[in-house]
Amino acid sequence: MKKDNSLFMDLSTNEVNILVNSSRGILEKDTLEVSGIKKGEILDQEKFHQSFDKPQFLQILNSYDFEEVIFGVSPSNIFIKQEKCLIFENNHPRAITEKDLSNWTNEEGSKSYSDLFVIHSYPLGFLLEGKDSVSNPLGMHARKFEVNELKVLIPLDLANNVSKLSEELDLNCPIYVVSNTMASCQNLVSQENKDFGCYFINVGDDVTELAAIHKGKVRYINAIPVGNSNFINDVALALDITAKEAQLLVDSYGTITPELIKEKEVSSLTSKSGNEVRVSNKQVGGIMRARADELLHIAKSHFENDLSQDFIANRIVVGGKGAQYKGFESLVKYIFQFFVYGFEYENDKPQCNIDSLLAMSNGETNMMNPLPSSGIKNNLNQLIPRGYSTMVRTTGKLTKEIIKIFNERVSSGGVK
Q1: How far are the Cα atoms of 60, 276, 370, 399 from residue 391, in angstroms, in the given order?
Q2: What DSSP letter does each residue of 275-306 carry, written as one string?
Q3: How far apart are CA 208 and CA 189, in angstroms?
Q4: Domains and CATH numbers, the chain
Q5: Are β-strands 175-179 and 64-73 bridged in parallel, bridged antiparallel, or unpaired?
Q6: Residue 8 and residue 381: Cα distance in Å, rounded?
Q7: pLDDT 10s digits, 159-198
């Protein structure tokens, strides 16, 4: 077993990207096709869990002893909560110590709010005497010391599903659930834009992620259950053709500015009803333009209605698979009237989310809250050493080492 390893899994779509990293660098990258998940939500827990019982994935599990596992999620329902937390209050001023800061951090571990679970929590600023906001209060004096904290929350059902999956895979190490939006903001937005302040739009396969960043910190997160797949579905529905044929049309003619097309191109297809359909590049562009226009106006409405008037920005960073079409950035500029910037590198690469998770774990571990350990294992799992349980399910055979442990437990009465 190789130690000093971290396992990363991106659960944003039905193509789960997997990465194994260590202090020596990236050891493995792979992709696993799974069922039971749509738009970042696990809809069928049984099918979803069964999807991971495949030789290619089990081989990875059996090859390493992981010190931590990080799941990236892109749910269409994600929430933020901003609140003040009291760290201490005294009659007389006293110096702020490292212990004050560490005590607050420890107390803010894993919490749940009704049907929500906190996956990230971090300070936006510290308050002295209820008014002076500072980023580094160590050594300063105050009678009352508070923190202005931001929490990122996901549905409790999603957190529980990830926890159950981890238990079934026998991942006996700290488990983290990370917002792909948060990770992408850290990795895909330039430091200048993060410091200056900007809006962020990532048009993924199934979900469009929204964020607002100021002074290097994410202040707002939201999601719209619309992504690149909707462009393809709209074309398929409007022209009465299959999704596969619609994908080919979008790949060939995809544009958000059909009015700028100079040369008309036409393709002949057969509709689902058996009729011949002649489709032009302008038709395809018109369908896609309507969807992009609606998506960006929804995003603008979220930013305007959800953010306080104190948040001012004139920059927007846009990217993702659904933003790669001609004219998309021009439409963003027209609707928002902002300066438009692209990602630091293209986000249409298959494993961009997983790379962002890796970058975030290397630099922002203090923002990640671990899932609470269930503390419940069946007798067989308690017998089997770390890393062997998945091998048992796959091969149906117990190794000599496991048989020996099993027999010893039976002899001593440890197995009922």
Answers
A1: 11, 53, 26, 9
A2: -EEEEEHHHHHHHHHHHHHHHHHHHHHHHHHH
A3: 16
A4: 2-76+157-180+367-412 (3.30.420.40), 80-156 (3.30.1490.110), 195-343 (3.30.420.40)
A5: parallel
A6: 23
A7: 999 999 999 999 889 999 999 999 999 889 999 999 999 9
